[in-house]
Amino acid sequence: MSMRHVGCWLVLSLVITVSGCSKHASDAPTPLPVNEMQTVFQRAFASAGADTKAAANQFVTDMQNHNATAAFGEIQDLRARPDLTADQQTTLARAMMTAAQELQKGADSGDQQSAQAMRQYKINH
What we know:
Layout: H1 3-19, H2 34-44, H3 50-64, H4 68-79, H5 86-108, H6 112-124
């Protein structure tokens, strides 16, 4: 299977996972643009614990610095936290879509770390 197919599968599975059984297509989350992440994350994680807030800030920093491989691992860890609010979960789902897209771009341009991260994600999910 080519990396493009893996990437398409990844984004599709994220959309299906996030949208669940929604009756309205407009309810499905959309990718969160990198240039909006800092503001959206600050609002969503304002009341989060120090560790969660630090992890969210690190994810945003890595996305802004075009380090999608590190960001992708961080957001997976963030999404696994049991104490997330609904707003935080939605924010992370949107950001995960963006991170997956950036990871796919890296893999398509020959970045081996991005390609390996996508393969690993597919194996585990």
